[in-house]
Every structure is written in C-alpha cells, then in structure tokens.
What we know:
The protein contains 6 helices and 8 strands. 37% of the residues are buried.
Amino acid sequence: MLTEKNININISLDKEEENKLNDYLNLLEFWNKKINLVGFKNVKDIYDNLIVDSFYLYDFIKEKFKEKDLIFFDLGSGAGIPGIPFKILYKEGIYYLIEIRKKRVVFLKNCILKLKLENTFIIDRYAQEVNSLLGRAHIVIARAFKPYLEVLALAKDLLLPKGKVIILANEQTPKITPSSWILKTTYKYQVKKKNRYFWLFELNI
Length: 205
C-alpha cells in the first residue's frame, strides 16, 4: 500500500557535528570555485538549497530502518550530497560514495580525511562494477545520478534480498514502477517552499 508522509525535520546538532558541517561547507565553497561542484556559490545558498536534503534523509532513515549495521551505496556522489552531511549525523553502518569523476573523487577523499568520518569510503569505480568489489548493500541512494529507471536497473545487482532504493526526486510519484520493484512509500518535504520527495523502492521478490 503506497503511503505518502510529510516529514517535519527535527534535528539538533551537537558541537562536533556542527563543526564538521561547517568545515564541509567551507571545503565545498572553496573547491567549488575550482571544479564547479554545485550551482550555488556561497555557503548560505548551498546550505539552504542542498544540505537540508541530508537532514531530511537522516530523519527518514532513522524512522524506516532500525538496523545498526546497514550498508549504503550512494551512486554518483558528486559533491558528497546527501552522503557527507548525512554521515556526519548518522554514525551507524558503512557508507560508500560511488563516484568515477576524478576531480570529484579528489574532493571527496579530501573531505573524508579532514572531517574524519568513520566507516565512510570513496569508491572510484563505475556503479555496475561495485558488486564485484564490495558485494551488495542494504540501501542504494541516488540523487541526480541517472533517470530513476536506470538506477533501478543498476540496483538489481547491487542489493541484498529485500534491499531498498531511495530516489531523491522533485515529483510526487514515479510515472512507471517496473514489475520487479514495489514502490513502498513516498515521503514529502519542503525546501525553500518547494516540495521534494523520497521514493522508497523494494525489490519485488
């Protein structure tokens, strides 16, 4: 049964998390001048328009998944959003940022080193190669990586049984859900008074 839920963010950062988030924002602003990681140019705009997605994702994951040893594959991690801010808050599990573009890989590795994020790793391989290197994940996350149908096709070979895919989307529901997948839930939240959504898919096996 498909349900839609509005998420009301309820995040309180401790001092260490706040410092790490500020450090990440400063790194992103600095590197963005060199390699154009994101469209927004200053820290406030980056935070207001992009970073808040990670806070909502944190709330979503904490509510939907009670396991402590989850393995995440973040496909096409780019500037590290939502992964790096999410992992600043979410201390459990293992998080793999999958990114093939070399300059972005250098940036991401620099962030992980300077922020001292535990159990967070950069994998500079194509998504379809990850299975042979790392095995399978509980959750695949994709934001602006590929069209969602392509993500789902890739994710079949990346997920453990009953694994889930989370798509960060701007539309309420996908137009098509392939027969091999179940759309479990859509979650709605707002950024700058505009609706955004998480689509939660599960393999239909």
